[in-house]
Each structure stands twice: as C-alpha cells, then as structure tokens.
Amino acid sequence: MSIAGGRVRRFRLRAANAYLVSDPSRPQDDDSTIRPGRGRGSDDEFVLVDAGLPWDRGRLLRGLADVGLDAGDVDRVLLTHYDVDHVGTLATLGLRADVPIHVGEPDASYLTHRSNPPILSHKGAAQLLAAPLLTPPTNPVEVVDDGDRIGGFVAYGTPGHTPGHTAYVHERLGVAFVGDMVRETDGRLEPAPWVLNADSDQNRRSIREFAARCPPVDVVAMGHGDPIVEYGYGSLKRVADRV
Predict the structure, then answer these.
(1) Cβ distance 152 to 191 under 8 Å?
(2) CA-CA distance, 170 to 3, in Å (whole number)?
(3) How many Cα atoms occupy the beta-carbon half-sphere of 122 within 13 Å?
(4) What Å distances lie between residue 231 and 20, 161, 178, 242, CA to CA?
(5) Going by C-beta distance under 8 Å and a sequence separation of 6 or more, which residues neighbour residue 184?
C-alpha cells in the first residue's frame, strides 16, 4: 500500500504494520516517490517505522525488494515502542551497522536489555514473557524525547500503551505515525484495548494531548488496522473527543 503521494509504503506484517518512508532531503518538487524498481537513485533517507515480529523478516525483505531496495538501503529506524510485534526483526533484518534506532525511554532500555519491564504489571509481564524471542540489536540505539526532530520527523511523547511510546509526525508529508496509541476498526479510530496498555488512563490523556498538538495531517498511520488516508486529523480529533 502506497500513501502520502507515494513517499510512504505500508508493509502489512503478521501482527502489526511497518512503514517505509522516503524522507525528502532534496527540493520539494523533486520526484522521490517509492515505486517498484526505483532503487537507490535519490538523496532521500529511507526510514523504517517499526519492524514487525521476529518471523516477519522475509515479509519485510520482500516488501523492500518490491521497490528495488534491500535492508542495506535503510538509513534509520523509528520505533513507536517496545513490543515484540514492533521490534522483532531488528537483530536479523540485515541493517547496516551504523543505522541508528530511535526509541523513547524506558522502552529503549527494554530493547537493549539494560533494564526489564515491570513484572508486577500485566503489560510488563507480557513483555517479559516475549523477551526470549528477541535478540537485542547491535545497532546504535538513540533515545528520543518529546519535541526532538529526526530528519523531517518530530517526536511526540505519547506514553500509555507503553511507558516510552512515541508518535512521529512528518508535517511536510502530512503523516502521523501513531503506533499502538490508537487502532483502526471499520474506518474508525479507537484507543488501544486496556488489556494491552501499561496505563489506559495515561493512554487516553496522550490521545487528547496529541490531538491538541498534532498539525492537521492527512494520514494517520497506526500499528494495527488500515491507515486513515483522508483527513486523518479529523479522525484523530474525533477519537480524542470520545476518550
């Protein structure tokens, strides 16, 4: 699925979506769409947003190959959060050794195994059960904070689903990558179910605060469900008004 004028490709993986973004670094009127066979003939950065389950490596590589790329063409990774269905391929995908992985804390420490999720919470217990399935990536892990700019993206701290959950907005492309803060069902956005959240009250606050701060994007791209590709900002405001 190609969205945002062809600059974003959605990869539908086993459990969650991942996205490949052609982050423009050349003048705006240059043609930097991601299209089959295009290859590396561009000055753009190729950014992978989230990375699927450990068993999604083949699907991700096929998705990259469909647009003439491979894992070595990815320039950076943005993680919305630490969960097995969003970080699973990082150690095995074949990223270049210097490719940075950006993620908020404390999720960054969970990813690198510097600390563990809290075992006394249902979310932390589920993450700990899944941890043996994951190998920590050897790539540099860079912690992002609310307001950080990464290329054309701005990071928004949106804790609740996980403590370090982060959304990324590319205002020039008109896309908000919101991870599991919300999900799509039948064209409607809903908060992530309470059983999947570290703190559902905090997640609802994050939805309201993000909707108030987010620029009026066209596309809302989430981890679960189909991206809202027309007036996504309106859908975001509506779910914020309900929670």
Answers:
(1) no
(2) 13
(3) 9
(4) 21, 24, 15, 18
(5) 190, 222, 224, 225, 226, 227, 228
Q: DSSP letter for 10, please.
A: E
135: nearest Cα among 105, 112, 115, 114: 112
Q: Could you give the domains of the chain? A: 2-242 (3.60.15.10)
Provide the token pair at 6. 């062809």
pTM over 0.90: yes
Query: Are the C-beta atoms of residues 167 and 154 closer than 8 Å to each other?
Result: no
Task: State the burial class of residue 126 (Cβ atoms within 10 Å of its Cβ: 0-12, 13-18, 19+).
Answer: middle
First to last CA, the chain: 30
Calpha distance 183→94 (Å, rounded)? 29
Other CB atoms closer than 10 Å to residue 36's CB: what's the count? 10
Encoded tokens for 72: 């070595």
- Each residue's pLDDT tens digit, 34-58: 554 455 556 789 999 999 999 999 9
The structure tokens listed for 29 are 């009127």
